[in-house]
Amino acid sequence: MVLMHQVGVVWAGMGHALLWLRWAAIAALFVYAGIRRSLTTWIFVCMVAGAEIGNDAPGLALNLRVLSLVFLRLIKTIIAPLLFATLVSGIAGHADLKRVGRMGVKAIVYFEVITTFALVIGLSAIHLSQAGAGIHLTGTAAGEALPTQKLTLVDTILHVFPENIAKSVAEGQVLQVVVFAVFFGIALAMVREERRKPLLAVVESLAETMFKFTNIVMLFAPIGAGAALAYTVASTGLGVLGNLARLLATLYAALAIFVLGVLLPVALMARVPLRRFLKAVAEPVTIAFATANSEAALPIAMEKMEALGVPRQVVAFVMPTGYSFNLDGSTLYLALASIFVAQAAGVHLSLGQQLLLMLTLMLTSKGVAGVSRASLVILLGTVSAFGLPTEPVFILLGIDQLMDMGRTGVNVLGNCLATVVVARWEGERQGQGQRQGQRQRQGQRQRQGQRQRQGQRQRQGQRQGQRQRQGQRQGQRQVQGQRQVQGQRQGQGQKTHVSPMKPRAGRGAPETSRASGTFFG
After folding, report:
1. Structural domains in the chain?
2. pLDDT in tens, 55-69
3. pTM (2 decimals)?
4. DSSP code per residue over 313-343
5. Of 238, 242, 234, 228, nearest to 408 (Cα)?
6. What pLDDT digit, counting tens, does each position of 268-325 carry?
7. Cα dihedral sign for 127, 131, 137, 139?
8. What backbone phi and psi angles, to 5 degrees, belong to 347?
């Protein structure tokens, strides 16, 4: 007994020592964050501190949830005005409806192809791990109930279009806000320019203001992210065993395969600068992972993509549209979780039923990014529509927060990549047009240069001809002048030589004769 007591005392002492060692390491991380002064570093350090608080003081951590909820509320106030302003300014600012339509087709095709890959990977991963096999349920886990939602194709289509924009904004219906903003932007683009400019200036000012508002709210992000992770660790713990641990590992392995096997090759094929891209997405993905809420990362993700060099009109259209049509992580999770429910219930689904289930999930998963536990609600409604028991869904509540963190991070990462890829496609198309225009301008400059050189040569020849003619005329004048001078000199010489020989009439003639005779005699 004494030995056991001594061992207990030693073990307790080691536990206290490890506790102090962990907090000393966290303090060192806080010092490092203070030196770096980077928001991403502060978010990471606060997440580590939050996880430690959740593990060491779960009672305190549960009370810290109010801080994360305050952060989420502030973020949600940004979503609707930011989406509306950026979409309307992006569409009406250029008034190029053909380009918007072309961009929309490219984005939708990309979204559906990538989402299909996510469904296939999730379906394959759960079949390989068999995480739901061997579960024997005795009732509803934890006694927690979720509202059953039987979704139909008609309800899904109607849910896309808003009946009252104020109601859509109040309820946080992102897809309905996007649809309203797209139609509003198209209508504004069709207005005459003198009528369009004032309202467009107001919308662009609203977008700039909301980005500044986002920067202010993001200063609270480290506290909100740390409090959210503290609550997650305190409420669910990290010691999940058995089937839930296998399901959790299966999800994160499938997400890693999707990122490395699908998103990375797409980025390489699109020639995305990976180092700059990863640096840009680090902060929004971290926020999405910590808060398990895609909307919390949307404003900063849009700002980072624009800072990366993606045109604002592409960011404003592709990013919010992707939040409704390109939820890669949520789609993968729904495929994995639906088969988990079937395995836990001991129900065998044929290949046709599984394909129909995947198609249903592809349609019903649109626009669930900003709704708390929306994926779980969609899953419950889908399995109910297929006649599967709902009891296995409730056991996912214990690890839903941990799973939601991973799938939300991949949602944001996939949407950021989609924005860059579509911008690349648009840039290549514009680059081809620019190169053709450059070649045309170069040809025009060459032809103009040739005409200028020909004109210069002609003018030079004319000037040379003029100089030659002037030289000829000057030479002729000089020759004529010389001849005249010579003629004058000869005339003067002849007068000087002949005058003494001529006898003069009248007085003095004999004297001249005598003198002449005397001179010569």
Report:
1. 38-435 (1.10.3860.10)
2. 888 888 888 888 878
3. 0.56
4. HHHHHHHHHHHHH--HHHHHHHHHHHHHHHH
5. 228
6. 988 888 888 988 888 888 888 887 777 778 888 888 888 888 888 788 778 877 776 7
7. negative
8. -105, 130
